[in-house]
Q: What sequence folds into this?
């Protein structure tokens, strides 16, 4: 008999009918003899609806109160699923994050899980109950409700699986696994049987929202066997594996990730003297803005142009800070651009293959797509391009790295 943690995402519990379907599925697993802990998200669209409501009161809602509100989405779905299970004769009980005691830090809207008390859940499992836990939420040591950041129910699932020493954590969603890239953008994307934690971490951090990055971090750290599956279609899904060997037969590139969440800022004509990067990025970081990519170029006249990207939500804030810095340093001008996108190729195979980056640049050049910024690490190459070319770039790279599915073998 195995203990399985099953997480169902927003679209999988998006209507009462779907919740009934999830209950049927959980019932079948129970009948197969497994112990089940279920983690659910809010109904799809609900978290956005709640955030919109808050924004009608204030542009920047007080984070503590926002958490009190957005956590209600998951409270609805846990109760509905528990009811649907009980209706089917499956003993079940639902708990909020606070009731389980999923202890987090106090960083409202992006809290980190510190500890999970598994006792109450273990008692219910022993008593033969399916335990349904609210994803995305926790409680800090003072008893304040916290949330874990968008997509955070994945993290609740994996963290619970680690705390309960579950045999597997299954992430059920609206696609049947992790694909070479988002199958909604590239119809020829292919499902991967396996992907390494390292690659999945890069994919998640570079924009593939199929798994929240912290969920992957947790799974890697605590060696939680993790699988992504379709909620309502049978299939093996994708296993996230520690074992790089097993993936050796995959192509050099495992996947392509992209994100439209960044904005670019440039400060031009800054004196090229020691400490310049610190003078620019010090105040940016003091304003709590995280910087992603950075490029610095020195001109003939011994001035430098300094460009960096930030999350689009931080753009206005960063622009204001940068204008202040420019005035202080006597810089020529500050330029901002929100119409950018980042495209990244990811694969452990890059370690043993040269020329991967140039193959990427060649594919983009053939489509006449200008590269504005580049950054590389051992297993990824990222470029910033104009946002309107994003889909074209992803498709071109997918073909160039021979990731396209054979005809007739595409998703959905
Ligand atoms: P859930 O509500 O179940 O958590 P999400 O919307 O958060 O679901 O994540 C699933 C979505 O992730 C898919 O519908 C798909 O469009 C998107 N996605 C992005 N990149 C990938 C990828 N590489 N493989 C699979 N899905 C991806
Ligand atoms: N409901 C939350 C969100 O929409 C958490 C989740 O779905 O994982 O971000
Ligand atoms: Mg999600």
A:
């Amino acid at each position: 008999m195995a203990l399985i943690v099953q997480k169902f995402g927003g679209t999988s519990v998006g209507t009462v009918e779907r919740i009934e379907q999830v209950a049927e599925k959980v019932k079948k697993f129970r009948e197969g003899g497994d112990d089940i802990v279920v983690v659910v998200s809010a109904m799809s669209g609900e978290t956005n609806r709640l955030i919109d409501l808050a924004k009608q009161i204030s542009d920047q809602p007080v984070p503590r109160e926002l958490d009190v509100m957005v956590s209600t989405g998951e409270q609805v779905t846990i109760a509905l699923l528990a009811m649907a299970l009980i209706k089917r004769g499956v003993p079940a009980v639902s708990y909020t994050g606070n009731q389980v005691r999923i202890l987090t830090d106090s960083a409202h809207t992006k809290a980190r899980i510190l500890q999970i008390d598994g006792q109450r859940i273990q008692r219910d499992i022993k008593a033969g109950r399916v335990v349904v836990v609210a994803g995305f939420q926790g409680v800090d040591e003072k008893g304040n409700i916290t949330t874990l950041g968008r997509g955070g129910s994945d993290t609740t699932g994996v963290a619970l699986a680690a705390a309960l020493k579950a045999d597997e954590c299954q992430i059920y969603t609206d696609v049947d696994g992790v694909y070479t890239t988002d199958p909604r953008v590239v119809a020829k994307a292919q499902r991967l049987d396996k992907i390494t934690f390292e690659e999945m971490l890069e994919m998640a951090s570079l924009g593939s929202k199929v798994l929240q990055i912290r969920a992957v971090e947790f799974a890697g750290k605590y060696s939680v066997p993790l699988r992504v599956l379709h909620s309502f279609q049978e299939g093996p899904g994708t296993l996230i594996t520690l074992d790089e060997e097993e993936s050796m037969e995959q192509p050099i590139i495992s996947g392509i990730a992209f994100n439209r969440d960044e904005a670019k800022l440039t400060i031009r004509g800054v004196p090229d003297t020691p400490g310049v990067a610190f003078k620019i990025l010090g105040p940016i970081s003091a304003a709590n803005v995280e910087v992603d990519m950075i490029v610095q170029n020195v001109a003939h006249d011994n001035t430098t142009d300094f460009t960096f990207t930030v999350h689009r939500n931080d753009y206005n804030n960063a622009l204001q800070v940068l204008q202040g810095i420019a005035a202080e340093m006597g810089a020529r001008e500050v330029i901002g651009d929100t119409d950018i996108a980042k495209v990244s190729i990811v694969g452990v195979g890059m370690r043993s293959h040269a020329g991967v980056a140039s193959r990427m640049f060649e594919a983009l050049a053939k489509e006449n797509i200008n590269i504005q910024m580049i950054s590389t690490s051992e297993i990824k190459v990222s470029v910033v391009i104009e946002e309107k070319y994003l889909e074209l770039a992803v498709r071109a790279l997918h073909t160039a790295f021979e990731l396209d599915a054979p005809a007739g073998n595409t998703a959905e």
Residues 9, 151, 154, 209 surround magnesium ion (ligand 3) (CB under 6 Å). DSSP finds 13 helices and 20 strands in the chain. Residues 3-174 form a domain with the Carbamate kinase fold (CATH 3.40.1160.10).
